[in-house]
Amino acid sequence: MKVLGYEINRYKRNKEVEQPQQEINSNSNSKFNNGLLFGSLGGFSSNSAMRLSAVYRAVDLISDSIAMLPLEPQITDKNGYKSKFINHSSYNLLNKQPNKLQSRFTFIKLIVQNILLQGNGFAYIVRDGEGNAIRLQYLRPENVVINYNEVTGTLSYGIAGFKKFVEPCNMLHFKKYTIDGVQGISVLQNAYNTLQISNATEQSANNFFSNGCNLSGILTVAGQLSDTQKEQIRSSWAQAYNSTGSGLAVLQGNMQYSPIQINSKDAQLLESRQFNLTDIARFFGISPVLLGDLSHSSYSTIEATMLSFLSQTLQPFLELLELEFSNKLFRPSESNLSVNFDDTKLIKTDKTALASYYQNLFNCGVLTINDIRKDLGLSKIENGDNSFIQLNLSTVNNIVESKTEEDKTKELKK
């Protein structure tokens, strides 16, 4: 049976997809068309948005912060304890190189960028004959068609160049904002009006200066002027105040110079641009401080900003990525496996916070000396695998019993 030019067969989890046999016209079939439902409105697109410095910085900051974190498979034992599963076949895919073209950093960064700018991030899972993932193939959102039947609840994906539909178990589909649970919505779609205003403001500011409107004064001429004199004044003025010139035109005759204060602030450009930055930051869920706006910042503000960024901005992204990897990457028999980011790397640039983190875990007996040295990239030391706890802590019952024994000893001595 063929639908939209596809041959529909049940796609097996443990078999690789057939080689591409026909091209899919994604522009006509895709529901989201490059992830931007408003892409044709005013000629605004994700590329246009990325030319706005605030959008570029927000996307780059979020995607870089997530891409730099190690991504590793973990196994959970019968007692609920998790440990890193280095020997699993997916370890290198997740932590080093998911495919021949991209490193882990580039792969994750692309996925997060697609989620933010286009609403959906896709990667096709290529499996061997036993169902093990052997490659994670990054897919551009415009090359994927989402096929969802609301009546039957069935979902499949069409990939440009692939003959058969792909089942959800073999497609990593990342989305953060959605209204139907199937198709993602980009930040740009929600922030369309703000981005249009911001783009128009930047163009106005550019036109303001490029058209020679950064004037410092006006020349008033008394009396009538001949055509030659007018041309002389016009030529001298243009030479002094055009987009490449500078300085004050000095002319002969009865002229008076009156300074004026026409600048971008008077035209409310600075205020508009400042508001646009704050509004864009609000849509991306980050503080304006992280976009370079330090006008109202202090040390305490920056510290609180970083905590908010880690807990409210990055953590939801980490959670959605981990769940999608964990739910689809492994075979059904590997339900005790999961994928997790090592978010401790986020504090490794803050040496004070890092030292406090390790000290607290060491004092509680959670980490050994060699555990800490391993995280820091140092070699093992002898007798470094012992756990330590502080002796000056005890339970209330032990303290009461100790006090009772002490009193009994004193009574016997009497």
UniProtKB/TrEMBL annotation:
InterPro entries with a match to the protein in the record: Phage/GTA_portal, Portal_HK97
Name of the protein described by the UniProt record: Phage portal protein
Species the sequence originates in: termite gut metagenome
Pfam families registered for this protein in UniProt: Phage_portal (PF04860)
